[in-house]
Design goal:
Blueprint (H helix, E strand, L loop, with lengths): L7 H59 L15 H10 L8 H11 L7 H11 L3 E5 L13 E3 L8 E5 L6 E6 L7 H6 L2 H4 E2 L10 E5 L1 E6 L2 E6 L1 E5 L1
Length: 235
């Protein structure tokens, strides 16, 4: 009978030792895999943000080119806000804008316009966020090179724009469309929307809108003026 290479006790200890090393190796491999996957996801996210930024910059530039020159307030920096976002995306560190929480809540609300109490939900949203209600009253003159005129209205149903006061800046507002109003050709061409927002709208009617970037307005001496057009998507 041949002698065993290792005594039974030593063999058991060796097996346990090998098993322990294998477990440590597996944990290490899993950890490295998770780090690699996390890094890849972050890189993919940054690349996605960079693409979105480029699209938004293109849309905003096209919209600004259509705005009459006197629509821009004097002594105001009109450099697109998305330039800052682009720089942040390149660095992998995108800073959240002051208005982002408001826009996120708005988009959630806009996705719920098919519920029975949508109008009530909008009333609550306007009240809770202290939103100012606006309508565009002279958009038909924009094609003649004249400034769009926005005016305050009394109720949600007659409003076309919602203006949220940017925290810490009493004269600055982030502006979004009224999600209750169906987006159609009349609203787009005669309601001031095509001058206020770049969008994917071409023709037809849509009941849902999502804000990618709110329009930036300023209120000076009772006059509402576009500082930076926004970007929306209808669906």
């Amino acid at each position: 009978m041949e002698a065993a290479l290792f005594p039974p006790m030593a063999a058991h200890i060796l097996l346990i030792f090998v098993g322990a090393i294998s477990m440590v190796a597996l944990v290490g491999i899993a950890y490295n895999y998770s780090l690699t996957r996390s890094t890849r996801e972050k890189i993919a996210r940054v690349e996605e943000l960079e693409r979105d930024v480029k699209i938004l910059q293109r849309d905003i530039k096209a919209l600004q080119d259509r705005l009459p020159k006197d629509a821009m307030p004097d002594n105001t920096d009109t450099k697109p806000a998305m330039d800052k976002a682009a720089g942040g995306a390149m660095a992998g560190n995108v800073k959240q804008e002051v208005w982002q929480g408001f826009v996120d809540d708005y988009n959630n609300l806009a996705n719920s316009m098919n519920i029975p109490k949508a109008a009530e939900a909008c009333e609550n949203f306007v009240r809770n966020n202290k939103v100012q209600l606006l309508a565009c009253v002279e958009s038909q003159k924009a094609e003649d090179g004249k400034t769009l005129v926005y005016t305050a209205v009394d109720n949600v149903g007659s409003s076309r724009y919602w203006a949220w006061n940017v925290t810490g800046k009493p004269d600055d507002f982030a502006v979004v469309p009224n999600p209750l109003i169906e987006y159609n050709e009349e609203l787009h061409h005669k309601g001031g929307m095509k001058e206020t927002f770049a969008s994917n709208y071409e023709t037809g009617s849509f009941k849902q809108v999502q804000v990618k970037l709110p329009a930036q307005f300023t209120l000076r001496q009772g006059k509402w003026v576009i500082v930076q057009p926004g970007v929306i998507r209808v669906k």
